[in-house]
Fold this sequence. Notes:
The protein has helices at 2-13, 15-28, 46-49, 54-74, 78-83, 85-111, 118-143, 147-161, 163-176, 182-207, 211-223.
Amino acid sequence: MKIAYKQILWSICLIPIFYFFIVMVLKEAPYFTFNKYTHFLATKPDAILDHWAYLPNFFIHISTSLIVLLIGIFQFIPSFIQKYPKAHRNIGKMYIILILFFAAPSGFIIGLFANGGLSCKVGFCLQSIAWFLITFFAYIEIRRKNIENHINWMVRSFAITLAAMSLRTESYFMHYFLHTKPIETYLTVTWLSWVGNLMIAEIIIQFKIPYKILFLQIIKTLKK
């Protein structure tokens, strides 16, 4: 009963992430009218919008990142992993493939065209590199059957996956509560959204709260 209670609490904690996924679907749907002046794209000069690499990678990035966010949620629901270990493995493979071959590389390319100058370009490009490497390490560890290390790296990977959620939440807080200027907000959240998430992930990993307790039994499931 104690473990089941913690599983329920952990699953409830994932509800805001699922809600954010729904919000992002609604926000990103207009982009797929393929009007290059839609929302965020309207802030880009024509020289960037007409560049052969930008728009294709922009659409690859926003679509695959949404899928990764959704399937990542299920990878952190203990009861789902225990009941459907095969589905967990298949979804995990999809998560890794989408990040390594689509979301992270496309994120790096569009990061080269980021607004906000060199600091933002470096921030977004480093985020994509970290996302790629950390996810790759998670893959290596599961191949080696190092389940605990695999879980740790996946926690870090999903932390970066959630950077889009953090960026928007932090932007809202800074703008409406700290009254920062738009450029100050943007320059800050470019880095804070993913570096901050990684710091939180590391605290969770190092202090073993509370996911470690839940995943002790799942380790046995994944070894089967």
